[in-house]
Amino acid sequence: MPRQSSLAFIPLLTLYILALTYLSPSAHAHPFPASVSDNIAGNDNSQRPFNSHRHPSSPYGSPVTILSEGQELPDETLSLRHLLHHGGNRYPGLFRRMDLEASDIQRSELLTGESLVHRVKVKGTTTLKPRDQSYRNQGFRSFDTSIGPESWTKQVVPAPDVTDKESVLQLSKMNYNSYTEVASPGWYDLEGNWSVNSTFGWEEDGLRGHVFASADNSTLIIAIKGTSAAILGGGGGTSTRDKINDNLLFSCCCAKVDRTWRGVCDCNTGGYQCDQTCVENSVQSGDIYYGIAMTLLWAVQDMYPGAEVWLTGHSLGGGLTALLGLTFGIPTVTFETPGDRLAAQRLHLPMPPAINWDDFPLFHIGHTADPIFQGVCNGPASTCYYSGFAMESKCHTGRTCVYDPVTEDNWKVDIRTHRLFDTIEGVIKVKEVPSCKTEVDCKDCELWEYK
């Protein structure tokens, strides 16, 4: 396994930031006009202007500058700007935002000696956008109508360059930092009337996103936190809800693996038979983070109307961002994500042959030693099975970029390699980025029959 390095201390950086934010007089003053803060809470439709050198139009319209596929664009330098936390099934009204200013970042860097600024190469990449400009609430989700070429327009948009090793490394570090547990001081209530000190257990529910922004606010990256699970050598307050989401999104039929498993919904009709309508409804339940992740995305778009928004995530966070990216045609880069195609089908998101995966800027980065990414962490002999995780799906949407440490470095397939730290230190830092390809002839849940 890869040896430890200074990267192991990166999660401490966010804690420094939060402590500094609490102590700084500026921490409790909104860095935006009051109308913008109101808009986030849903009380106003005002917009915050920004100086965009490239994308002054709405994200739902066509960019002013016509780009070409593969066109090299100026690098983007982004720094951590906000932390967002939205409650889930237990606290559905909880919605908080923590704002970080440049001075907070600078003081933290002086204390830690580590940079919290990330530089990413950018190039023009094809995506599909719905022709209907009022698609905010639905995107490409279609339950009653078919999706075909008449449903979208093809555009070339700025996106992270996933062929660039340093850019992939910077995106992975953004995700690594999103696992850091956050402290209570400095949070703004965006919904409801919440008091952290009197609301015991609020951190054990919901989803968290870290928002990185360029200096001119023209480009944003949202990193969504992945699974906090003891199976990966850690844990976390949200681990119970994370497991429910993993088992609903990435299992064949609500984690009804065998007779010893209770399952997280009642869609199994006996043996390897599953009620298709029931399982589709289950992935839209209040326990699923997909809808919450969408709310986080909308909040960021309201804060920065017209900005380019990119998504990234690791593990469960990667699965959620991939579903969002496919829903709205947003450039997305994930790390070690379980097969997300099954969940996308159940959400009625576009699939081949209606679309071509090469037309979506959706990239899954992983490696051959990770049993969750490879879709082999299942069955009675697996660690996932004994930990209560039904990680049965293996097929991915978009394109996969697969490193091969098993063949090249004699790594063993091991659940511990799913930890992002090991992937960064042992793979991303030392290897060139592999080519990204569409998975061919991949099939999920072949033993199951859906009616």
From TrEMBL:
Highest taxon, organism lineage: Eukaryota
Topology with respect to the bilayer: Single-pass type II membrane protein
Keyword Lipid metabolism in record: yes
Keyword Cell membrane recorded: no
Catalytic activity: a triacylglycerol + H2O = a diacylglycerol + a fatty acid + H(+)
GO biological process, any: phosphatidylserine catabolic process
Its EC number(s): 3.1.1.3
Gene Ontology CC, one term: multivesicular body membrane
Composition skew (Polar residues), residue ranges: 38-50
Disordered: annotated segments: 38-67
Fungal lipase-type domain location: 295-326
Keywords: Autophagy, Endosome, Glycoprotein, Hydrolase, Lipid degradation, Lipid metabolism, Membrane, Signal, Signal-anchor, Transmembrane, Transmembrane helix
Primary residence: membrane
Subcellular location: Endosome, Multivesicular body membrane; Prevacuolar compartment membrane
Protein name: triacylglycerol lipase
Family of this protein: Belongs to the AB hydrolase superfamily. Lipase family.
GO MF entries: phospholipase activity; triacylglycerol lipase activity
Purpose of the protein: Lipase which is essential for lysis of subvacuolar cytoplasm to vacuole targeted bodies and intravacuolar autophagic bodies. Involved in the lysis of intravacuolar multivesicular body (MVB) vesicles. The intravacuolar membrane disintegration by ATG15 is critical to life span extension.
Protein's organism: Mortierella hygrophila
Subunit structure: Binds to both phosphatidylinositol (PI) and phosphatidylinositol 3,5-bisphosphate (PIP2).
Signal peptide positions on this chain: 1-29
